[in-house]
Amino acid sequence: MITRFKSSLFAHIFATTTAAIIVLFAAMYLLAVPFIQTTVEGIEERSGRTILNNVYAMVEQAHLDLEKYRQSIVLERKAQLRNIITVVDARIKILEEQVRTGKLSKEQARHVLLDELRHIKYGRNDYVFAANYRSVLISHPDPELNGADFSNKRDFRGNLIVPPMVDGALSAGEGFYSYWWRRLGEQQPTEKLSYYKHIPAFDLIVGTGVYLDDVEVAVRNKRDAAVEDLRRRLRETRLAKTGYVFIFDGKMNMLIHPNSNVEGKSVGHMLDPATKTPLLPILMTAADKPENVHYKWDSPSDPNNYVYDKISWMRYFKEFDWYIGTSVYVDELAGSARTLRNRVLAVFAITLLLSVLLIYLFVKKLTDPLRQLRDTALRVESGDFDARCNLSRNDEIGVVATAFNGMVWRLQDNIRHLDTKVSERTAELEKAYEELKELDQLKSDFLSTVSHELRTPMTSVIGFAKLIKKKLEKSIFPLAAEDEKAAHAISQVRENLDIIVEESERLTLMINDVLDSAKLEAGKVEWNFTTVTPLRLIERATAITTPLVEQKGLTLVSEVEPDLPNVRGDENRLLQVLINLVANAVKFTEHGQIALRAERQGEFVRFSVRDSGCGIAEKDQGKVFDKFKQIGDTLTDKPHGTGLGLSICQRIVQHHGGELWLDSTLGEGSIFYVTVPLKETI
User: Domain range spanning residue 668?
Assistant: First the structure.
């Protein structure tokens, strides 16, 4: 181990890492332990509140369960009532059939029905009743109530009894209604749930009901079972070491308490030993408030000695009129924090020792292969190109060792064959250069040949076509004009000659575009840079393009900023750009005007061509300057040119040190801008 510390890399990494770990652990301890102690005390305190809230939630859930239980019983009673009226309804259907077949009159059937209803009894003296639309009981098993007018009769709580059922039956056909009434043969009223239904065939409201006192008995039994279950669970709940949960009601009866001497008894007489005031009112006042209650109490290990500080948190559950509290000794809250602090200190010490050991093993594993790589590199540096690193690993260090060996091998091989490779590569470069020169010459010869071979015959075609048309117009057509058939043939010949001339001229323009593009790309264009006056350039462009604009019924407007300075450029090439832009504007504009303008913009003169045509979609604007690119459907629209015009214009403008761009809105038109540097800035 001592030998390893002699390695500067090992000693540096180990010392630095160990020092960092020690400082980190010291900082963690100094920062964490006070924080942990304070936090744990807070956690213990919050635990008291959390347990209180959990118990409150348990009580709340018990209340919800009781309500659901009550509702389920009520729903069961409702189903029973529906079934009873369903049986009655079946009997009514039979009577209706007898009325329909003439066996009984409607009044006879109604009398039979009312008589039968008075004798129906079930359960604990439960019965079926019937009322007319005026809320008069026309069928009731109690002789005192049979025939009684209940239109203004109310239960002992002041609620009408029969009219709400009559109204509900007439509006909805059926329904349920609760009121307080006495059982048949009894005097004490209790809550009753009735189901009523409209019998339009006999102008009756039929109903039956069930008393809910047995429901409350079942609910009370369920509640007692829930309280007993809660008591069992709370006896097992502890805060800190000896803290507990207790529950008393608004009458100060202790319902749940871990001390059997207190549970189930009235505790309103209990006093705070320090202030000699009743303790429970103080606890009741603190319910649902953020403040806790501090008081003195005795300890299980020191009974009847009320000198120990205790803390309680309280909540009130209104539905049960319960006060729920948690109680714990203050000293126990800090005890957990002290225990945790000591355990954290022990864990820190053990972790620090293990960390130092792991650092030693890690640094050893890291530096051993690096030392081997270092020794091999020193041998190569001293001229031993046969040296190799024998590391065989499946990690990054293994990759570095393999790469290092490969580098040494290639270095050794390159040194042996360096002169041969230099000579071979030089010969290859010279051969490639000669081939490029030969290809460049072939390209120049091809352009020269194509220029002569294509332009000369097209010029002849156009010339002879025009000459033929002129001779025919002068010598032949006048002689045959009077013959109707000849006149028709003359018209076709004229049209065909016009097509030949027009298409030949268009083909010539296309050839010129292709050749100009090729020359620009090959750098074979001859430029004639002179001083160019923007006004003269605009005037020439206007004069040349006016016939083209007027032929389509458009208007050409030109405008030049006063005192515009000169630019330096090839006037004919710049004129070619403006003519091409105006021709494009005419091509894509059906009505309106085309504006040709020149103005100064900083160190440039900016020319612009604005049209009111169809415009160019934003997605297509970046493509219009590409070679052989035409916007639109070239399958359905006849192409106008080669698609090289704007590409040629862009190359010409760029050669002048300017820019060409556009601003277009689909359906509103386009503006093409050209900038050329001022003569003074060249």
Answer: 527-681
| Residue whose C-alpha is closest to residue 525's, from 582, 451, 433, 625 | 451
Residue 473 lies in a domain: no
Tokens of residue 561, six digits: 């900023």
Question: Tell me: the pLDDT tens digits for 220-274?
Answer: 899 989 889 998 988 888 877 888 899 999 999 999 998 888 888 998 888 888 7
Task: Find the distance separating the first CA and the last CA of the chain, reported in whole Å.
Answer: 77
Question: Residue 205 and residue 134: Cα distance in Å, rounded?
Answer: 10
Q: Is residue 433 part of a domain?
A: no
Find the helix or strand (DSSP H, E) in which 326 lies.
strand 322-329
CATH of the domain at 26: 3.30.450.20
Q: Which of 341, 363, 382 is the last residue before a domain boundary?
A: 382
Distance CA 572, CA 581 (A): 14
Taking the CA atoms of 641, 647, 648 and 649 in sequence, report the sign of the dihedral they define.
Answer: positive
User: What is the phi/psi pair of residue 315, to 5°?
Assistant: -140, 155
Whether residue 675 is contained in a domain is answered as: yes
Q: How far apart are CA 429 and CA 83, in angstroms?
A: 107
CATH at 677: 3.30.565.10
Q: Choose the weakest-confidence range: 32-41, 232-241, 301-310, 572-581.
A: 32-41
Instruction: Report yes or no: 15 and 4 within 8 Å, Cβ to Cβ.
Output: no
Q: What is the pLDDT of residues 411-457, one digit of tens each?
A: 777 776 765 776 777 777 777 777 766 765 666 556 556 655 666 67
At residue 360, the pLDDT reads: 75
Q: Could you give the residue ranges of the DSSP H alpha helices within 477-533? A: 477-480, 484-522
Q: Model pTM?
A: 0.43
The pLDDT tens digits for 202-225 are 999 999 998 888 888 888 899 989
- Which one, of 238, 181, 191, lies nearest residue 217 by Cα? 191
The C-alpha atoms of residue 110 and residue 129 are separated, in whole angstroms, by 14
What φ, ψ does residue 613 adopt, rounded to 5°? -85, -155
Q: How many domains does the chain have?
A: 2
